[in-house]
Amino acid sequence: MVETVLAVGIVASLFVGFNIGGSSTGIAWGPAVGAGLLKKTTAAAIMTVFVFLGGATVGRNVMETLSGDIITIEISLAAGVAVLFFIGLGILVANVFGVPVPTSMTTVGAIAGLGLATGTLDYETIAWILSWWIVTPIIGFWVGATIGRYLYPELNRRFRIEKSAGPLLSFDRTRAVPRPGLGPNTTYRELASTTLVMIVGCYMAFSAGASNVPNAVAPLVSSGALEPGPAIIIATVAIGLGGFTIARRTMESVGGELSDIPLLAALIVMVTAATITTALSYIGIPISLVMASVMTIVGLGWGRATRPITAREALTGEADAELAMGALQTEPEAPMTKIGEEESDEALDSGDLFNPGAVIKYVSMWIVGPSMSTMLAYGFFTALPGIA
Fold first, then answer.
1. What number is the average pLDDT over the span 287-293?
2. Residue pair 104/208 in contact by the 8 Å Cβ criterion
3. Contact assessment for residue 19 and residue 212, using Cβ atoms and an 8 Å cutoff
4. Which residue among 43, 226, 320, 374 is least enclosed by CB atoms within 10 Å?
5. What are phi and psi of 120, to 5 degrees?
6. Residues 14, 200: Cα–Cα separation, whole Å
7. CA–CA gap between residue 377 and residue 370 (Å, rounded)
8. pLDDT digits (tens, 9 = 90+) for 311-362
9. What pairs with residue 121 in β-bridges?
10. Which of 182-186, 194-198, 342-346 is predicted least confidently?
11. What SS3 string covers the chain?
12. Exposure b/e, 271-309, CB count within 10 A at least 16 = b
């Protein structure tokens, strides 16, 4: 009987990890694949390696929080399987609405529902986690707004990232050992920028592993049915499988609903979101990578669009002029204007930076996802207390 329940739990973990891989791979490697810097299969392979590294290092701290700190008792094997079911249900609902899954938040909600039903919830730990869920969007927005308002135009002029025709590298095969060299149209600047994109993608994948590997297996680790090492391998395999299959579509469409921004802006978002997520994972806080990404995009747009007015006018709404929201999409060569000066139409009129309706939908899922998993878990374990 125990073996059967464990088998069901592993299947549930694989399902959760598979869907995590589908969404996380698109977020980490969508910009690079879209720019033609590497193939989807290559992106999925690199993603799998760095997800494992993130889960096996920093991710262990998040695993400890999810499996032992939110509630004061060990989760039974049957309860762990039930929690994974509620996590999977949250993923399904998010997929129906077409938004990236707030898996970490849904996982915490399901475990918290168990704690509420059994009277074992550690309120101090939950309050600590919730405080970071509130602070993280603010940090992401603030960093994005600061870069967009004060730094982005200069970064755009200094570090324009372009892709030339033909292969990035060529190989001299006249020697016993092929010798690499620049492609026919490749410049050293392009090689450096491509290397930067690859490094940022690996960093994002590491961050995704640190935050998401525990979500797929922590309930089974808490029950003692799996040790952390094998559990991390199971989660990595599932995430990798998702990366090689369903992520192929998300890598094509990632960012399309929220923003149509150039590669430089995407890299700024990725570095900011990955740094916030990795830092919080290091201190054991389960956090959504999507949360930091979305709010950094919004911050970049607000900061870039409000350059023609002063910060005081932007914050108080005193400016009369309507702000255009396409500032990140163009890459003008004209001299950079000072804060408070009107910019040229070419620099500002190129479409919507982000879709406000999409942002509202994303933020709503940050509330609905964990709330739903908490209520469902609470109702389930209240009705069937023996399972816990």
1. 84
2. no
3. no
4. 320
5. -120, 15
6. 27
7. 10
8. 555 555 555 444 444 445 444 444 455 555 555 433 433 334 455 666 676 7
9. 71
10. 342-346
11. CHHHHHHHHHHHHHHHHHHHHHHHHHHHHHHHHHCCCCCHHHHHHHHHHHHHHHHHCCHHHHHHHHHHHCECCCCCHHHHHHHHHHHHHHHHHHHHHCCCCCHHHHHHHHHHHHHHHHCCECHHHHHHHHHHHHHHHHHHHHHHHHHHHHHHHHHHHHCCCCCCCCCCEEEECCCCCCEEEECCCCCHHHHHHHHHHHHHHHHHHHHHHHHHHHHHHHHHHHCCCCCHHHHHHHHHHHHHHHHHCCHHHHHHHCCCCCECCCHHHHHHHHHHHHHHHHHHHHCCCCCCHHHHHHHHHHHHHHHHHCCCCCHHHHHHCCCCCCCCCCCCCCCCCCCCCCCCCCCCHHHHCCCCCECHHHHHHHHHHHHHHHHHHHHHHHHHHHHCCCCC
12. bbbbbbbbebbeebbbbbbbbbbbbbbbbbbbbbbbbbb
Reported pTM: 0.83
Average per-residue pLDDT in the chain? 80
- For tokens 């059967």, the residue is 4
For residues 316 and 328, give the distance between their C-alpha atoms in angstroms, rounded to a whole number: 23
Q: What is the pLDDT of residues 77-104, one digit of tens each?
A: 899 999 998 888 777 766 666 566 678 8
Q: Which pLDDT score is estimated for 214?
A: 94
Tokens 């005193």: give the residue. Answer: 318
- Write out the two tokens for 242: 């998702």
Nearest CA to 264 out of 185, 356, 314, 194 is that of 194
The single residue listed with the structure tokens 């590997």 is 213
CA 162 to chain centre: 24
Strand partners, 170: 181
**Two tokens, residue 69:** 């700190």
Question: pLDDT per residue over 205-234, tens digit each?
Answer: 999 999 999 999 999 998 888 899 999 999
